[in-house]
Specification:
Layout: H1 9-21, H2 31-42, E1 47-51, H3 54-64, E2 72-76, H4 82-88, E3 93-97, H5 108-117, E4 123-126, H6 138-147, E5 151-155, E6 163-164, E7 167-168, E8 175-179, E9 192-196, H7 199-209, H8 233-264, E10 270-272, E11 279-280, E12 285-290, H9 292-298, H10 300-309, H11 344-352, E13 353-357, H12 364-380
Parallel strand pairs: 2-3, 2-4, 4-5, 5-8
Antiparallel strand pairs: 1-9, 6-7, 6-11, 8-9, 10-12, 12-13
The site of pyridoxal-5'-phosphate has 14 residues, from helix 3 and helix 4.
């Protein structure tokens, strides 16, 4: 089994150095700043702000692009709840959009329809999610958003190192957010980072995450209402070390993803979601569609346990479209009634898509075992 999070000697050394330095919280000239420089360079962005989580990164970037109370924002219904709740915290209203069955990313057709219905221009922000590490159709999404006068924040929580038409994701829209939570391709247990090419967004996000201070300003001078969402030097030390080997791991995941496609080629029951040729995926997850036949007979949970009992490693993934989560019925937030919403591809994906987690793809053996277990299940569950 590949251990995740990784216990790596280089990371250990880097962490210990930061620990012994006695500087654990963010300091000028420290490791967090170095990480911001290195990560923004890696993602071809001018600026980065390291924060405490991906959720917080989304919240701060929505705030920095001007999402306001009562505004609407569009997002795919097949994503982690933070994509939505980051905006709810600003008292903005999520508008759920269906996904594309080929990529599981926001459907441009559905987005167009949603924007067309929004006659009085309430939708001020569109949040494409690079689900599983496959970049969303950014050219079209950004084009549709621009026509509507809406901003674009990329939820790149799963997409470290991913590229769209040769360009690293994150700062293609107004800003993008990555997560370093335990399951992600790079992790410090928790953490997140905002990347952007826009100086105004950068200084706002920086200020909001640091008690409303100004960069190079006085400690007890607060220009904006802000909070403490600072990353620690200890987290940054681990991440900086991981970033140095990230490209190598990226390639290993890519190679093993291809191996899995090969081993499942022609299988009637398990069809992997493959990235389009003009993107490169971070392979945070390798989503697999299960045939309707198998699902009807056994259901997702049973199939997952049958695969795992045969030595594979797969997980069930999102159990329901986001708009069906009980959280959105809490009266306090005064959200619309989503009970009649029904986005067919999202509904189908929640019923029929399972995921191979990224750490499996770091091992050829485990990738093989997982593919073989899938093939056996397809043969044996009739
Ligand atoms: C993990 C994740 C987040 C949230 O990141 P945290 O660091 O856990 O707060 C947001 N969006 C997506 C798509 C994610 O997978």
């Amino acid at each position: 089994m590949v251990k995740w999070p990784p216990v790596n000697p280089d990371d250990e050394k880097s962490l210990l150095e930061a620990f012994k330095s006695g500087r654990w919280g963010r300091v000028p000239g420290g490791v967090v700043e170095e990480f911001e420089r290195e990560f923004s360079r890696y993602h071809e962005a001018k600026y980065a702000v390291a924060v405490t989580s991906g959720t917080v990164g989304l919240f701060l970037s929505y705030l920095a692009v001007g999402l306001n109370e009562g505004d609407y924002f569009a997002l795919p219904a097949y994503t982690f709840i933070a994509t939505a709740t980051a905006g709810v915290l600003l008292r903005a209203v999520p508008v759920f959009v269906d996904i594309d069955a080929e990529t599981l990313n926001i459907s441009v057709e559905s987005l167009k329809a949603v924007l067309e219905q929004d006659k009085d221009g309430k939708i001020k922000l569109v949040v494409p999610v690079h689900f599983s590490g496959i970049p969303a159709e950014l050219d079209e999404v950004i084009n549709e958003a621009r026509k509507h006068g809406a901003k674009v924040i990329e939820d790149a929580a799963q997409a470290h190192g991913a590229a769209y038409k040769g360009r690293k994701v994150g700062a293609i829209g107004e800003a993008g957010v990555f997560s370093f939570q335990s399951s992600k391709n790079m992790t410090a247990g928790e953490g997140g980072v905002i990347v952007t090419n826009d100086y105004e967004i950068y200084i706002k996000a920086w200020s909001y995450h640091n008690a409303g201070r100004e960069i190079n300003g006085e400690w007890y001078m607060h220009a904006l209402i802000g909070w403490n969402f600072r990353m620690t030097e200890l987290q940054a030390a681990i991440l900086l070390s991981q970033l140095k080997r990230y490209d190598d791991e990226f390639k290993v995941r890519e190679r093993n993803a291809r191996l899995l496609y090969e081993l499942l080629e022609g299988n009637e029951d398990f069809k992997p979601v493959k990235p389009p040729t003009y993107v490169s995926s971070s392979n945070h997850l390798l989503p697999i569609w299960i045939s309707s036949r198998l699902i009807k007979q056994y259901g997702k949970a049973r199939i997952v346990s049958e695969v795992n009992n045969r030595g594979g490693v797969v997980v069930e993934g999102y159990p329901m479209p986001l708009y069906r989560q009980p959280a959105f019925r809490e009266s306090y937030w005064k959200l619309p009634d989503y009970s009649r919403l029904n986005l067919p591809v999202t509904e189908d994906a929640c019923r029929r898509v399972i995921w191979v987690p990224q750490h499996v793809l770091l091992s050829e053996d485990e990738t093989r075992r997982t593919a073989e277990a899938l093939v056996r299940v397809s043969r044996e569950l009739r």
